[in-house]
């Protein structure tokens, strides 16, 4: 017998009425952001219990089943509007057929004097949820409730062709332990009856602790009240268990239902949840589109009022801007190439080591050049040195060099207004980053604190909206002018219009070797320059602690049976 757990718990203040009244469309729309009702049960009611639970079911000759549930719910000291109960309306019989079951004439009362108004919550296909109590009048401690309803279509044809009721009178959707459970079924006649306790999470099913008594007979026999009766009892100290009762009746004593139904959709798939998910996702998408258009307008204004020529950047600064402000070995090679062209350094074949190369200090000065050139020149030649072997560069290009090099490249971009100030960027990032997490936490908090009863699809929509909001508000680190320069450099790269050194600085690792061959150094031939570039890369990547890039460079690029519980 298949049915489903509750997916929503959606209590609303209401007038006292012991008859069920469906929620209005406006009331349903008021329930925003949702999480599964199971979460609300598992958190708010984790210390709750049901000391006693009794079910009396009376099977009529027309096949209807009148059910009265009498249970005591212990809310402890935590106030609650009351319990809820969800019932399956599409069940699977023992032949695997899915059959519709109608639940009607739902009423509730409380012998202990607790509010017992009944309201139906919007639920998924395959089950219905009923809320008992009043959000404006919460209760604590032990409260007793009587819930009565009638089932139509629950009696089906058994394997041997006789009427059979196979029903989860206590479903595994209960999130609290039930200490003592009793089920009594009366029918015009009973040939056989059995009871089973199951727990699908643990993957086992067993007979009830007390197999029960069966007073078998036909109408007018048995217990002297016009029928036969079967009784079973059990109890369990952990939640999530179910109690199924199967009653087989003599042929012709009870009408059976042969209606079939489609397999129910998952319990979390509700119309309200789907509407909220679509609405929140649409709102998030609209926010992203609007933010993108806003950025486009800001970039347009920057082109008019504060244009920046990408060719004014050094090759290393251009590469640093286009690789998310991460220093990479190709930026250093590009800077060396420009320094060689300016006469700051000269690359020559090693006089004693065949295939090796050395850098010699040139005659030109660094004044007026990019700041990064001065940092790199100081790292190459310390003191009175005028020559350095390429293979000895690794220890000199350490983490401190990487930090100073990044500061120099950043300073070059700041001078042209390409970067957002670091402090402002970090504060905005810290404020925006938690938004997706907050969006995920809001629904369960509303469920447990305000009894909002929000469903799983709404949570998905809320998280998507939070991600879109974060993306829209998170700064890129580049000003509109910087974004324009970034786009211009990438466009020139795709069109092949960049100088060789700048092309190398922007190249990926896969493109690097080809870019080296295109370099044209100031004092050496093309082949020799490509060779010292390759040797330099090997030196940088083999440096201690490099982790695939030179030290300090920042790394490379990259249920069945329903249930119930606390509301």
UniProtKB/TrEMBL annotation:
Pfam families: DUF2207 (PF09972)
Disordered: annotated segments: 1-20, 213-242, 542-567
Domain called DUF2207: residue spans: 50-198
Record field: compositional bias (Gly residues): 545-567
InterPro entries: DUF2207
Keyword Hydrolase among UniProt keywords: no
Transmembrane in keyword set: yes
Basic and acidic residues compositional bias, start-end: 1-11
Ranges annotated as spanning the membrane: 268-290, 427-446, 452-474
Record keywords, A-Z: Membrane, Transmembrane, Transmembrane helix
Name this protein carries in UniProt: DUF2207 domain-containing protein
Organism: Nocardiopsis coralli
Lineage start: Bacteria, Bacillati, Actinomycetota, Actinomycetes, Streptosporangiales
